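QA checklist item 7 of 12: single-chain prediction sanity check.
[x] sequence parsed
[x] length recorded as 339
[x] structure emitted
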Amino acid sequence: MKAAFLVKYGDASSAFEIREVPRPKPKDQQVLIEVEAFGLNFADVMARLGLYKAAPPLPSLLGYDVVGTIVECGPAVTEFQTGDRVTALTRFGGYAEFAVAESSVLGKIPPSMPAGVATALSTQYCTAFFLARELANVQAKDQVLVHAAAGGVGTALVQIAKHQGCEVFGTCSSAEKVAYLRDHNVDHPINYRQHDFAEKVTEILGNGGLDVIFDPVGGKSVKKGFRLLGAGGRILTYGVSSMNQAKSVFGKLHVLGQFGFYHPVQFLSKSRGMIGVNMLTIADQKPHKISRVMKQVISMTEAGILQPHVGGEYPAEHIGDAHAHLESRKSMGKIIVKW
């Protein structure tokens, strides 16, 4: 089978190489999927830059989400069978024509569901649903700030928050993305290249505070966001995309220091909370949570409540271009790669 290996860290144009390798063999609780398409996530960019410790060593086969058809089941798999079309989380290995996945972290999808839409569900929409509904438990009239709101997870968070009746603030980096957010009914789009998001939120809210903040940026964004929370407010941080701008060890340490330092008394006295989320850890240690969430987002998508936006489709031979587009921060919605 063909697989797109990360062979060196750095520039996307020269980082990947397509190689012929044997098909993987599913273990007891795993399935083998013939891959129609695999998705890109910002963690992939961090891995390519050598900034994601959980990634396998070079040459490495990345990939967290795929859509395709099951061609082989492990002997202990009972809920799925060969021929089922599924969207799946992969513990790396998704950048290939065939990929294995644990049966606990995949969901059946109809033949009519576009590959891009289906691919967005397993990582980005499961992440968003887990953050917004299971951890933050957003409710009607909550005032919610979504950072990187035009991205894949950001778009999903916006749709879930609006469905729940929230007032949504969303940050983005361009006028085009501001228009995109307006099209998605974001109440207060904020171009952070033109406005300081904290000043803009304070200007709109006055003395009130936000109920929930979703932050994949990290660094000073978290520190500024924590100050914007009102009583009962919580900030959920699920990435450190600001780290990709750090060019040295000292730069990385600087970004980490910008998160700020906190003590439980701060949370207690002001009735504020902070939660960190790594979905790979959740999938490894609590796969039943992923299964539960995946069934929910598939059902909501089939009902038209959730509507993933596919921001780009690339052939596997142009995986470098797909990575560069995602890294540029110009992408909107889900980026996928097809064989």
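[x] summary fact logged: The CA atoms of residues 149 and 170 lie 5 Å apart.
[ ] second reviewer sign-off
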